[in-house]
Specification:
Layout: E1 14-18, E2 25-26, E3 29-30, H1 34-48, E4 52-56, H2 65-70, H3 74-83, E5 88-91, H4 97-104, E6 111-114, H5 132-140, E7 144-147, H6 158-164, E8 169-171, H7 173-187, E9 193-197, H8 206-212, E10 218-221, H9 226-232, H10 247-256, E11 261-262, E12 266-269, E13 274-276, E14 286-289, H11 291-301, E15 306-310, H12 323-334, E16 338-341, H13 344-353, E17 361-362, H14 367-374, H15 379-382
Parallel strand pairs: 1-4, 1-7, 4-6, 5-6, 7-8, 9-10, 9-15, 10-11, 15-16, 16-17
Antiparallel strand pairs: 2-3, 12-13, 12-14
Helix pairs in contact: 5-6, 8-14, 9-10, 11-12
Length: 388
C-alpha cells in the first residue's frame, strides 16, 4: 500500500503538491473548475496542518511562446484566491531567484502557485522528458512531495516522478479516491458486469477492451467507434467515421466475443433521420444511437450490478444528437446502478447533460483512467513509497 498524505507531519515543512489544474479556459475565464475543486481537500488538509505549500501543475501543451501566453496558470491563481481562506501568491516563473525567494518567505499555512510546469517544455521538453536537473531543482524547494495529480499519473514527468524520486513522498486524497474507486469496481465480484463504450477513437481503447472484455458480461458499443465494428461485420455505414487501421482488431474481437458485444441496430443521422443500421445509404452519416438501440442497451443495463462508462453515445454537444447519451445516463441513475464514469469526453458529457453528482464515481482522469483500466503501469503512482 502506498504512503498517503496522512503518513507525515507537516508543521513548518515545505510541501510540494503536484495538482491537476489542467482546466478549460476561454477568454481568461475558467469554464469548468471541477479539477480545481477536487484538489481542495488535499490543499486544505495541509493548511490545517500548518504546512508551507508549493503548488505545481501543467496547463495544456507548450510548443511555442504563444502557447506560453495562452496557457498561464494565472486564472487558476485567481480562482484559488476565491476558494481558499489563506494567503496565496503566484510566481510567474518556473525557476529562479524570484521563485526561491517566494518559497523561502512562505509562512505556515501560506501557498505559492508556480507557473505552468510545461513552460519548461519549450524548447527542450525538460518537464515531459523528466529531466534530472529540473527534477532536482524543483525538489530542492521542498521537504515533502505529495502527488495529487491523478490525470497525469500515467506520465513520467519531472514534476511528478522526478521530484518523487528525490523527496519523501505520498499520494494525496484525490489519487487515493480515484484508485480506490477504480479498484473497487473492477475487482468487485458481482454480475452482470457491463462496459458501455463510445467516443470516436478505437486506437486508444484497444488495451482497455482487451483487459475488461474477459472480465465483463457484456460490452455495449456506441459513439463513433461503433461504425468500425459494424463495417467489420460487412454492414454499410455510409460515410460515418471509421477507423480502418483497427478493422482487423474489430473483426478478431467480434469473432472471439460475439456473445458479449452488443452493437446499435438503429442510428440517428446527420440530417436527423432515424434509420435501421441495415438500411444506410452511401452518403449517410451516423451521429447518435437510435431509440431501438437505447431499448436494447436498457435491457442489459437494468440487470447490471456494476457498469463502467467510457465515452458518449453520440455528438452530445449538439442536440438532438445528445439524446442517446442522456437517455443512457437517465437509465443508470433511475435504476441506481453502480456506475463508474471515466474518460475526458464522458466527464464533459456528464457535466453538460446535468448528471454531475449522479453516479458512484466520476473520474477526473482522461488518458490516466484509460491506462488504469487497461492494466498498464502508472509511473506517477508507482514511484510513491510503500508504507512500512
Amino acid at each position: 500500500m502506498k504512503k498517503t498524505i496522512k503518513d507525515y507531519q507537516y508543521e513548518g515543512k515545505r510541501v510540494i503538491v503536484r495538482c491537476d489544474f489542467n482546466v478549460p479556459i476561454k477568454d481568461d475565464k475558467i469554464t469548468d473548475d471541477t479539477r480545481i475543486l477536487e484538489s481542495l481537500k488535499t490543499i486544505n488538509y495541509l493548511i490545517e496542518k500548518d504546512a508551507k505549500i508549493i503548488l505545481l501543475s501543467h496547463l495544456g501543451k507548450i510548443n511555442s511562446k504563444d502557447d506560453m501566453k495562452k496557457n498561464t496558470l494565472y486564472p487558476v491563481y485567481l480562482k484559488l484566491k476565491e476558494l481558499l481562506s489563506t494567503n496565496i501568491y503566484f510566481c510567474d516563473q518556473t525557476r529562479g531567484r524570484k521563485l526561491e525567494e517566494m518559497v523561502s518567505n512562505l509562512k505556515n499555512r501560506e501557498i505559492v502557485l508556480v507557473e505552468n510546469t510545461r513552460y519548461e517544455d519549450y524548447p527542450d521538453k525538460l518537464e515531459s522528458n523528466c529531466d534530472k536537473q529540473l527534477s532536482k531543482y524543483w525538489a530542492s524547494l521542498g521537504d515533502i512531495f505529495i502527488n495529487d495529480a491523478y490525470a497525469t499519473s500515467h506520465r513520467k514527468h519531472a514534476s511528478n516522478v522526478g521530484i518523487a524520486s528525490i523527496l519523501p513522498n505520498a499520494i494525496g486524497f484525490l489519487i487515493e479516491k480515484e484508485v480506490m474507486a477504480l479498484n473497487g469496481i473492477i475487482e468487485e465480484n458481482t454480475h452482470p458486469f457491463v462496459i458501455l463504450m463510445g467516443g470516436k477513437k478505437i486506437s486508444d481503447k484497444t488495451l482497455v477492451i482487451d483487459n475488461l472484455i474477459q472480465k465483463c458480461d457484456k460490452i455495449l458499443l456506441g459513439g463513433g467507434m461503433c461504425f468500425t465494428f459494424l463495417k467489420a461485420k460487412n454492414i454499410n455505414v455510409g460515410t460515418s467515421i471509421v477507423d480502418d487501421e483497427n478493422m482487423s482488431y474489430c473483426k478478431r474481437l467480434l469473432d472471439q466475443y460475439s456473445q458479449k458485444i452488443v452493437l446499435p441496430v438503429d442510428i440517428v443521422l446527420k440530417n436527423k433521420q432515424i434509420k435501421d443500421i441495415n438500411n444506410l445509404s452511401k452518403d449517410d452519416i451516423g451521429c447518435d444511437i437510435g431509440p431501438e438501440t437505447i431499448k436494447i442497451f436498457e435491457k442489459e443495463l437494468v440487470l447490471a450490478k456494476r457498469v463502467i462508462v467510457n465515452g458518449p453515445m453520440g455528438i452530445f454537444e449538439e442536440p438532438p444528437f445528445d439524446k442517446g447519451t442522456a437517455e443512457i445516463y437517465k437509465i443508470l441513475k433511475e435504476n441506481n446502478i453502480k456506475t463508474l464514469v471515466g474518460g475526458g469526453d464522458s466527464v464533459a458529457s456528464i457535466n453538460l447533460l446535468g448528471y454531475k453528482n449522479s453516479f458512484y464515481h466520476i473520474s477526473t482522469g482522461g488518458g490516466a483512467t484509460l491506462e488504469y483500466l487497461s492494466g498498464k503501469p502508472m509511473p506517477g503512482i508507482e514511484i510513491i513509497d510503500e508504507k512500512e
